[in-house]
Amino acid sequence: MYLDLLLVGFGHVARRFVKLLDERASVLHDRHDVRCRIVGVTTARHGAAFDPNGLSTAVLLDRYASGSSIDGTDRDRAGRDYSWLLSEARHHTATACAEGRVVLIETTPLDVTNGGFPAIDHVREALLAGAHVITANKAPVAFGYRDLAARAAAAGRRFFFEGAVMDGIPIFNLVRETLPACEILRFRGVVNATTNFILTAMERGRTYHDALTEMQRAGIAEADASHDEDGWDAAAKTAALINVLMDGDATPLTVAREGIRAITPDRVHDARARGRRIRLVASAQREGGLLLGRVAPEELHPGDPLAQLDGLQNGLLLETDVLGTVGILQLDGGLTQTAYALLSDLITIAKQGTRDRNRGHSLAPSP
Ligand code: HSE
User: Fold this and answer.
1) Active site residues
2) CB-based burial, 38-52: b 16+ in 10 Å, e otherwise
3) Are 275 and 347 in a shared domain?
4) Residues 189, 131 within the same domain
5) Nearest alpha carbon to residue 10 among 73, 87, 74, 62
6) What is the CA(53)–ligand 1 centre distance, in A?
7) Which of 123, 236, 251, 293 is the most exposed place for a label (fewest CB within 10 A)?
8) Are residues 158 and 242 in the same domain?
9) Atom of ligand 1 lying closest to residue 163 CA
């Protein structure tokens, strides 16, 4: 199957993703019969490019690294925004759109101040144009999951977001594919790598500032790192988990939230001296008919699986009605893992497309 990719956002995750696409090209082709080409990219500060015959990954990355526009001309060409990208795609890849072979890869930064926009619009418009959507941005699923899932179903397209929580470690896929007869009753997790890295670094004598700077340099902290520090990233992930796994209607704003700025080295060491560890814990549970989400630093008992998580590690404990508690740990987190989530969603879309075609299902949108 041939897939044409449109990228909105070309930050750390997207750049790692396009490299991973090249690195795994033979696996995609030999094992999954998928061939991909990037036909369009828009960026916030490096212009935009579109070529229906495919753009060169190496050239895009070189131009980005050199600071010039990714189309090789002057930067920030007026009007070359997301609407421009979609209109180029509608015009030049109409057949591929109609056949369900165009995928929007949405990796714009998390912004909690605008109710999930403009990322939600990116998803809506792409679905309307006939593209599938994969996002690593938490905003669409945290603010607009129900609406977007319904729009995707009506359009006969996929809306996937595995990279939104715990990078490439399967959470949404795992529940969708392997826990179809279980209810998720509650969950607890450590879902933000930046704050876990800072707390671990402070336990080891490093400063908060030093550890945060390292996460910013590594491209793991959010573009606006206060989203990590103040718990917004974890609250967005909590809302996403509530909406998808528990059929809730949360947003990051409805999740009770406390970040880690008030955690001092003294508090971290004091907890350690008592055999405890402070971790930023995200959780949700049902109480009196309501689904309550919470993000807050907690002192964890050494027997708690979440207390074992160091540095970039993340973990999620799902309490189910049938299987008891199912734990998922991410012991190696990072950019490659987030990029991998996009890749794995892409393969799922290709496989489902092939399966639908073999069964003779139409990929055309519902009337
Ligand atoms: N800023 C996020 C984190 C990136 O630190 O976990 C991955 O969602």
Assistant:
1) 237
2) bbbbbbeebbbbbee
3) no
4) no
5) 62
6) 34
7) 251
8) no
9) 8
